Known about the structure:
Blueprint: H1 2-29, H2 33-51, H3 58-87, H4 90-96, H5 101-130, H6 138-159, H7 167-184, H8 196-202, H9 206-217, H10 227-255
Amino acid sequence: xxxxxxxxxxxxxxxxxxxxxxxxxxxxxxxxxxxxxxxxxxxxxxxxxxxxxxxxxxxxxxxxxxxxxxxxxxxxxxxxxxxxxxxxxxxxxxxxxxxxxxxxxxxxxxxxxxxxxxxxxxxxxxxxxxxxxxxxxxxxxxxxxxxxxxxxxxxxxxxxxxxxxxxxxxxxxxxxxxxxxxxxxxxxxxxxxxxxxxxxxxxxxxxxxxxxxxxxxxxxxxxxxxxxxxxxxxxxxxxxxxxxxxxxxxxxxxxx
Length: 256
């Protein structure tokens, strides 16, 4: 019984520390120029570039906008915050403080999750105010948004494990991954239009499952993957990204 109480107390303490780190990042970095550029302006610019002039209905366009917004917003915070904190030695103080590395990583990921959810609320509000659309399955839609924010925030933290003090040194290789994912995940090119190999590769992209769940939320089901499979894929992606991130940051910590 005492061991269970000690474990619960430790988990509560680490969760409190993670929230404190995440809340600090929310207050300090949400309005920083790199976050606004890569997290808000860039996905909206891409959306209008590839959708204006195409024969798509509002119901078809909105899932693309939501998927892009979540993808870019949630994955941007970590790669912006961690290099800036390395420059000011704040991140080093986290690693030397009496808290686990998991608390630091979860706190940084939490800031990305909240940012992704908040930014995704913008097209939702605008859509409700100006366009006639209906969310058919609120559960699948909400799961698609939230689980995607978790997975992509963790992906951003994984890329932020590169030991550099420059945001650009992380954003450049990360964009070499993020931009191709847009073309194999059904965002700009329907998955059904991809060659067989491309369709197989798309199954390993978390963004594919984001789009599937959000489309199911809108009542659009065009690709033969059951929603539970997409839910599991996003959960697994988030877990893998967090584990890899922890391992990379642990290696960096040892080197320092």
